[in-house]
Every structure is written in structure tokens, then in C-alpha cells.
Design brief:
Elements (H helix, E strand, L loop, with lengths): L4 E3 L8 H14 L10 E4 L1 H8 L3 H11 L6 H17 L4 H14 L4 E8 L15 E6 L1 H13 L4 H10 L8 E7 L5 E6 L10 E8 L3 H4 L6 E6 L2 E6 L5 E5 L5 E5 L12 H18 L3 E8 L2 E9 L15 E4 H5 L7 H10 L5 E4 L2 E5 L1 H4 L2 H14 L1 H11 L2 H6 L16 H13 L3 H21 L4 H19 L2 H25 L4 H5 L7 H16 L3 H6 L8 H5 L5 H15 L22 H10 L4 H24 L5 H18 L5 H26 L14 H10 L5 H13 L7 E3 L19 E2 L1 E4 L2 E8 L13 E4 L7 H4 L4 E4 L7 H9 L3 E3 L4 H4 L5 E5 L4 E4 L4
Parallel strand pairs: 20-21, 21-22, 22-23
Antiparallel strand pairs: 1-2, 2-5, 3-4, 3-5, 6-7, 6-12, 7-8, 8-9, 10-11, 12-13, 14-16, 14-17, 15-16, 18-25, 19-23, 20-24, 24-25
Helix pairs in contact: 3-4, 4-6, 13-14, 16-19, 17-28, 18-28, 19-27, 21-24, 21-25, 21-26
Length: 876
């Protein structure tokens, strides 16, 4: 077998690196009984390698290209153009030309062919690269075919292909091109078939797009397609487009656009029988390749030909299930952390929630709401509770509930969210009532002191443990953590604070017409550990600002020798003490902190530098105390204003008495809302340090390559590796590859076991035209420059900026002291960003879909945190 040309029958999936994704799939398709594939052959990647090695300038140009970033569009276009021209100038070697001629002779040298590019990084399960390289249709004659082969080779370096590889992390030097030569089929109709609905992601619904003539008209967007939806052998939807144009092959070669006769423009492209025949073929291919497929087909003389089948790469994975209808809700949207979580992080979160019906998909955790939503009582509880965390999730669940047949199909079982479940007990209600009537803030101090004592005890007990004894201890200590997390007194205190906030907002709007009154009243309350964290970093900035040498060092500081280097500088000791004191209390925090594998500030103190510098730039000395006192004063003034206005109303004495009490309850207990998560993360840090000691031993003994490898094992797998001192390292490699894919996925808020992503929308009737709707969580209106920040480390905040991001967790709090407004894509009334925005008096709107894409960095925007919308004032 030669290495330059292979016929389809000689190709299978093992030849991927020789014939690329498209070529390998065509080889597999040609082997499936009952599937018609136009005959053809592939010029292998060995030919491409040989050709590119013949030009000395190729390697140098690749070196230049590899130094560029996606933003360097002009330079990318220039260099990629030089590479294409260099490749097209190279003559095809005589022996290769002879092999191509031999295969053409077998198929028919006078026939017309499609010349298609097939890259090794193409049509893969996790990256389609669809449309990145070129295709040439209806090419006739050996000379024309050879010329278009060179064009295909060169198309590996179209600007769009180069940028796509950069965006997806593919090395230009490690991607090779094969060329597919396939006999042309001249169809009466052609199109694309998706074995999962490309709009909803439902795996049970197959979608067919079709038009007259060659499929190129659809792919290029030249014409609208007829769209058919099919499920289980039944056509469930048809959309018939007006088809004014089609692309047809010319007898002499090439293609042309033709107008379709008016009387044929609105007729269906396919009969019902043909649509169902396509569905059967699609399901057969899906079963063969064992994943949903994106299939190109054409209809010629009433026979269907398959010209390509590739995995659909845009679908979010489905949690493992029993085949019955189920409903899953994203934990990440509730926890304000929608990033992928590594396996150790997932297993730790599952340990904490052992009785909770959690499942994993795409590196994220989902709550199985099926049994709760199958129950009338369960549905009521879900709608009343989950909407507080993320209203768009509530809207999605409401839209599902309108599907009566689907809801009836849900299996019944034990509900999780009920009285008696973790955190929701009769004792919690008892303590809430008791706390409300006592209104004594000393209970909060007692809860905090008890947790601090528990942490000190944990640190002492875990210090000398190792091996299986350590793992047993962590499992047992988790029970203690759960007692703290779900303490009925702690939950009762939180519920009392929320009740007071809700009462104030409802009554003040009803009595005085004022929305969000509790927001300003929540400023500078006691015991809010997260807001204290932001103000404490202002105090650190006060120390740093005194020492120019330290500020200069911060521009190039390294984590490895951070405190050692500080000790050599004027003022370094003072700064070191201030930062270490801050880390002692808050160093266990980080972005995405619910994943135990995330790098903590204790491990990466330089992560604090951008926020410290921002504080120095934007604030004067003693700003932490000034801001807290200002917030407290504004809250008191707001209380007096409300009480004064109530005095003018009928029944004023009763209203004032009740309002004063509720304001007192609010300020005594609302701050504690942030503490349980802080306690949870404190324990995570202690566990992590102990496990990393075990990881260091495993790395020393060669069981793993680096201590961070343990992040790709579950808790049980890590325990077994520590016990046996053995590990199949391929597990680590596979999980690293999977995690790299999961990082690029966007998790749905709500999905079904069929893979359908349930969309949700806001009622936009009461907001200005063109405004972006969201949930108002902190009252007030502010205008300013949008700072779109996707990673906290990239934040360059100036006084007066409005922070726009996907989500915020407590680690973002130090940024809040500098911004004047907040916009997030995820969140609800009681999520962390909302709580801190209210405490700092920052107008905030959350759950603004695609905010970080629709709002451009630097645009002037108006945030209406009272009504819940964003206006883009500067459209440039």
C-alpha cells in the first residue's frame, strides 16, 4: 500500500492522521451497508508534508505565524497569504501525479469531481473546523484537478482557518492536510441533516435542512432552506421557505447560480416518505458513529447519497440517566460559578451533598429536579426558592411546566426539597421564630466563634495525619462541616434576615411607592465577612501606598519568592505583615472557590496585586473606614426618611413600630448570609493542604508526574492511589483532555434527559426599547464606562467604572469597592454579588443574558438597579 493515495475502501478511522477527519469519515461511511457514498480517494497528509518541505520559506513563515495572537488580524492575513502563495507555486512531483492519475483512471478520468480539504484537526468529536478549508465542485480534467489539489493544500492557511486554530489551541505545525477527490453527484436536492436538534439540542429530534440543486447554496447562506423536524418516525414540524435561487453544476465544469421558476419556489423539496427515509439513515449513522451527527446528503435520481458525516461538536453532554424523562438544573448558576470543575472538585462537592440528587455532565454539577417537579408541592417549593438564586432558571422551569404531557411522564419518587432535608427542618423554623422575636445579634457572634474554634481544632487534628487515616478523617470531618453548613440556628438567622428584607421591600413599595428600600438599609451591616474582605484590602493598600519601592516591585512580582523579595525592600516588612495578616483571614478564597482544586490567594498572593494597585489609584488613605461609616450613615438616614414619610400615613404608629423593628432585624442578621460559605471554604483550604502533602509524596515516588495531577482524580481514586502507590496514568491524561474540552462549553441553566436546553426569557414590555433586561438586585441608577472583565486577574478598574462580567463570587468583592455599578449574566436577589452590591450601595442588575458579549468594553452604559435593565448609551 502506497502512502500518498488511498481509496475510500482502504480507509477507516485508524487512518485519521493520514487522511484527516473528513477523509476518515468518508472511509467509514463507505463501509456501512445500505449507505450510498460517491466513490473517491484521498491524497494523504504524507503528500502535504512532502510538498511543504520543498520550500525553504515555509518553516520561517510558520515561525512568524506562531508568534501572533488572534488580535493581530492584519499580520495574520499578510503571513497566511504568503504561505498560500508559496504552496501553490510548488509543482506536484511526477510520481505523485502518476498515482493520482491511476486512481482517476479507475473512477473515470472524464467524470467531474469534488475536490475537498480534509485536515487532521477537522470533523473531530470536540472541534468540527467546519468550513475552515476550501471545497471546489464540478472540477473536470486532470490538469484542473491537480491545480485544485494545490489550492486545497494552500487553504489550510486561509485567514479564517489560522484564526480558528489559534482560538482552539491547535499548533499550526501539527495540523496536516489531506485532499479528498470524490466523484460529483448532480442532485435534484441536497441539504444537511442533524440527528440532534441544532436549536434546542434535543437528541430525540432530528432536523433536516434542504433546498434544490447543490447543497453549497445552503452552506454558503445564499438561500433559505426548507426545515423539517422529525421524532420517532413522525414529522413534527415543517417550515417551507421561498427558494428563489439554487446552485447547479455546469457541463463544462464549475457551478452557477440559477433562479428557480416562481411556481416551484414554495413547493416542498422532499416528500414525507423521503424525509422519513432520511431520518432512518441518520439514526443508522448516529448509531454507527455512537454520537449525534451533522450529515451532508444529496438526492439524485431518487437515491440518497451521503457525502459527509461528522460529530456535532456544539452539544452540551447529557448526564447519565435511566432513559426516563428527567429535568436537570445547573448548580453552577446557583453557586455563581459556571466554569468547569476538575474531578477532585466535583467529588468533594458531592461529598458535601451526599444526600442531594447531583449528577455530572460537561465538568459541571446538576441537580436532578425530576421527583420534586413531578409533585405539585415540590413544584411550588422549587418556584418559590430557586427563583431567588437565578430567576431565568425559574422562567425555564415554568416554560417546562406548560408541557402537560412531558410533566405527566416524569417518574415519581422521593422529593429532596422538603421539610426534613438538609437545611430545611422543623428545627430551623423553630429557631427562626425564636431569633426573630429575640432579635439578639449575639447569636451571630456565637455561631462565628463556634466555627473559628472548630477550624482551630481541625488544623490541630489533621496536622499529623497521612495515608488512609487522613482520608478517613476528612470523611468524618465532612459531617462536622455539614453540621456547620446546615446548622438550624444559622439557617434560621439567615431566613430571618431574608424575611425582614422581603417585608421591608414589599411594605415600602405598597405604602410609599418605593422599590428596593431594603437595599440602602443593608449598607454597612455587621458580620458580613465578604464585604469586610473588600474593605480590609483597602487597609492593605494604605500600607503599600507608603512605599514606592514595593509598588515598583509589584509590577514584576513572582509568587515563588514573593515574601522573600518583599523582605529586601524598603517598607517590605510592613507590607509583608499586612498582606500575610490579610491572607491569614481571607487567603483561602479565590475565583471559583467551590472547586477545591482552584489556586487560592494563599498559593498565589500576586493575584491580590491588581486590586491593591487599583485601590491605591482610586482611593485616599483610610478609605476602608470612611466607606463603611458612609454606608452606615446613609442607611440610618434612609431609615429616618422612611419613618418620617410613614408618619403621614393612616395607621402611622403601627406602621412605624413594625418598620423600625424590621429594619433592626434586617441590620442584625442580613450580614450573616455570607458566612456559611466562608466557613465551608475555610475547611476546603485545610483539606487541600493535607492532600497536597500526599500528592507531593506520590510525585516523589513517580506515581504521578506533578502534584496537581491529583486534581484529575476523584476523592475515592486518590485514596486508592495513596493506599496502593499505583495509578494508571492514562486516566489523568484522558481527564486533562476532557477538561480542556469542558472549559470551552457553556452550561445550560436547565436541560432534560433528552439533551434539550430549556430557554427562558424576560417580559421586556416595561423597559425602554433596546435595553437589556435583567433582575434588579440593588436599587439606584448609575451611568459610567463599562469594564467587561472575564477574569479577575485582567481587571483594570478605575473610579466610576461599571463592572460587567459573567458571574461574581466572593473573591470578586475587593473589586466592588472601586466600581459604581454591577452587571452580571448569572445571579439572583440573594447571590453573593447582589448581597455585596447592596451592602456597598452599588446599583446592580443580574441575570442579563449575554451581557459580557452584548456590552463592549469601554462603552458608556446606564444601569437601572431599581427597575432591572441596562441601556447602552454609547453604541460605537
Amino acid at each position: 500500500m502506497n502512502s500518498y493515495v488511498l481509496g475510500f475502501q482502504e480507509i477507516d478511522k485508524t487512518k485519521l492522521m493520514m487522511v484527516g477527519g473528513k477523509g476518515a469519515n468518508l472511509g467509514e461511511l463507505s463501509r456501512i451497508e445500505g449507505i450510498q457514498v460517491p466513490a473517491g480517494f484521498c491524497i494523504t497528509t504524507e503528500a502535504y508534508k512532502r510538498i511543504t518541505q520543498q520550500t525553504s520559506e515555509f518553516s520561517g513563515l510558520l515561525d512568524q505565524l506562531s508568534q501572533l495572537r488572534v488580535e493581530d488580524r492584519g499580520k495574520i492575513g499578510e503571513i497566511s497569504g504568503q504561505i498560500r502563495r508559496a504552496i501553490e507555486r510548488i509543482a506536484i512531483a511526477e510520481d505523485l501525479e502518476e498515482e493520482i492519475t491511476r486512481y482517476l483512471a479507475k473512477l473515470g478520468e472524464k467524470d467531474a469531481y469534488a475536490i475537498r480539504s480534509s485536515a487532521t484537526a477537522e470533523d473531530l468529536p470536540n472541534a468540527s473546523f467546519a468550513g475552515q478549508q476550501d471545497t471546489y465542485l464540478n472540477i473536470k480534467g486532470k490538469e484542473a484537478i491537480l491545480r485544485h489539489i494545490s489550492k486545497c493544500w494552500a487553504s489550510l492557511f486561509t485567514e479564517r482557518a489560522v484564526i480558528y486554530r489559534m482560538q482552539n489551541g491547535f499548533d499550526h505545525r501539527k495540523v496536516y492536510l489531506s485532499v479528498v477527490i470524490q466523484r460529483m453527484v448532480f442532485p435534484q436536492a441536497a441539504g444537511i441533516m442533524f440527528t440532534a436538534d441544532p436549536v434546542t439540542s434535543n437528541r430525540k429530534v432530528l432536523s433536516v435542512d434542504t433546498g434544490f440543486g447543490l447543497g453549497e447554496a445552503l452552506v454558503s447562506g445564499l438561500v433559505n432552506a426548507d426545515i423539517y423536524k422529525v421524532r420517532d418516525g413522525r414529522i413534527i414540524d415543517k417550515k417551507i421557505a421561498t427558494k428563489k435561487l439554487a446552485i447547479y453544476a455546469l457541463e463544462e465544469g464549475g457551478t452557477e447560480e440559477r433562479e428557480i421558476a416562481p411556481e416551484r419556489q414554495n413547493i416542498e423539496t422532499l416528500t414525507d416518505g423521503q424525509i422519513l427515509q432520511l431520518e432512518r439513515m441518520g439514526r443508522k449513522l448516529e448509531a454507527y458513529f455512537d454520537c449525534p451527527q451533522d450529515i451532508e446528503w444529496c438526492l439524485c435520481d431518487d437515491t440518497f447519497f451521503i457525502v459527509q458525516s461528522r460529530p456535532i461538536t456544539t452539544l452540551y453532554p447529557i448526564p447519565e440517566n435511566d432513559g426516563r424523562n428527567r429535568i436537570y438544573a445547573s448548580i453552577g448558576h446557583q453557586q455563581m460559578m459556571t466554569d468547569a470543575i476538575k474531578p477532585l472538585g466535583i467529588s468533594f462537592f458531592q461529598l458535601l451533598s451526599a444526600k442531594v440528587p447531583l449528577t455530572e455532565a460537561g465538568g459541571r454539577l446538576f441537580f436532578d429536579l425530576t421527583h420534586d417537579l413531578a409533585s405539585f408541592i415540590g413544584r411550588e417549593i422549587i418556584l418559590r426558592t430557586w427563583g431567588k438564586g437565578d430567576p431565568l432558571m425559574r422562567n425555564a422551569i415554568l416554560s417546562l411546566m406548560k408541557r402537560k404531557a412531558f410533566m405527566k411522564s416524569l417518574p415519581h419518587g422521593k422529593r429532596y426539597i422538603r421539610i426534613g432535608s438538609e437545611g430545611l427542618s422543623w428545627m430551623m423554623l423553630f429557631h427562626a421564630i425564636k431569633i426573630y422575636f429575640q432579635n439578639d445579634p449575639a447569636i451571630i457572634q456565637h455561631l462565628i466563634c463556634r466555627n473559628e474554634a472548630s477550624i482551630r481544632e481541625l488544623e490541630q487534628r489533621i496536622a499529623n495525619l497521612s495515608g488512609d487515616e487522613l482520608f478517613s478523617f476528612i470523611e468524618q470531618d465532612y459531617k462536622g462541616l455539614k453540621k456547620i453548613m446546615y446548622d438550624p440556628r444559622g439557617f434560621g438567622a439567615i431566613m430571618v434576615g431574608l424575611y425582614a428584607s422581603n417585608w421591608i421591600n414589599k411594605k415600602m413599595e405598597k405604602w410609599l411607592g418605593e422599590k428596593g428600600a431594603a437595599d440602602m438599609l443593608s449598607q454597612s451591616v455587621a458580620n458580613n465577612i465578604t464585604s469586610q474582605m473588600g474593605l480590609a484590602l483597602l487597609d492593605v493598600a494604605d500600607v503599600v501606598r507608603q512605599y514606592p519601592a514595593v509598588i515598583e516591585y509589584f509590577q514584576h512580582a513572582s509568587d515563588e519568592a514573593f515574601f522573600e523579595d518583599l523582605g529586601k525592600l524598603s517598607g517590605g516588612d510592613a507590607v509583608s505583615k499586612a498582606i500575610q495578616a490579610y491572607l491569614e483571614k481571607y487567603g483561602m478564597r479565590c475565583s471559583g472557590e467551590i472547586d477545591i482544586t482552584r489556586i487560592r490567594w494563599n498559593e498565589q498572593p500576586t493575584a491580590l496585586i491588581p486590586m491593591i494597585i487599583s485601590n491605591i489609584k482610586n482611593f485616599g488613605p483610610n478609605s476602608g473606614s470612611i466607606k463603611f461609616e458612609q454606608g452606615r450613615r446613609e442607611a440610618m438616614q434612609k431609615e429616618q426618611e422612611l419613618l418620617s414619610r410613614l408618619a403621614d400615613l393612616p395607621g402611622s404608629r403601627k406602621k412605624i413600630k413594625k418598620a423600625k423593628r424590621m429594619i433592626s432585624v434586617l441590620r442584625n442578621f442580613i450580614g450573616y448570609r455570607e458566612y456559611p460559605k466562608y466557613a465551608f471554604i475555610q475547611r476546603y483550604w485545610v483539606y487541600k493542604q493535607a492532600l497536597l502533602k500526599e500528592a507531593a509524596l506520590l510525585a516523589y515516588e513517580g506515581v504521578i508526574q506533578a502534584k496537581e495531577d491529583i486534581y484529575y482524580l476523584s476523592f475515592a481514586e486518590l485514596r486508592e492511589a495513596v493506599r496502593t502507590r499505583r495509578l494508571d496514568y492514562s486516566i489523568i491524561n484522558r481527564r486533562k483532555e476532557a477538561y480542556a474540552v469542558y472549559e470551552k462549553l457553556t452550561p445550560p441553566r436547565v436541560m432534560t434527559s433528552e439533551g434539550e436546553i430549556i430557554s427562558s426569557e424576560y417580559d421586556t414590555g416595561n423597559i425602554p426599547q433596546g435595553a437589556l433586561p435583567g433582575i434588579p438586585v440593588s436599587a439606584g441608577i448609575v451611568e459610567g464606562r463599562a469594564r467587561v472583565v472575564l477574569k479577575m486577574a485582567d481587571a483594570n478598574i478605575e473610579e466610576g467604572d461599571i463592572l460587567v462580567t459573567t458571574f461574581t463570587d466572593p473573591s470578586w468583592t475587593p473589586l466592588f469597592v472601586s466600581v459604581k455599578g454591577l452587571v452580571t449574566e448569572v445571579g439572583g436577589l440573594m447571590t453573593h454579588g447582589a448581597v455585596i452590591a447592596r451592602e456597598y450601595g452599588i446599583p446592580a442588575v443580574v441575570s442579563v443574558e449575554n451581557a459580557a458579549k452584548l456590552i463592549k468594553d469601554g462603552q458608556i452604559i446606564r444601569v437601572n438597579g431599581t427597575e432591572g435593565y441596562i441601556e447602552i448609551l454609547d453604541k460605537s
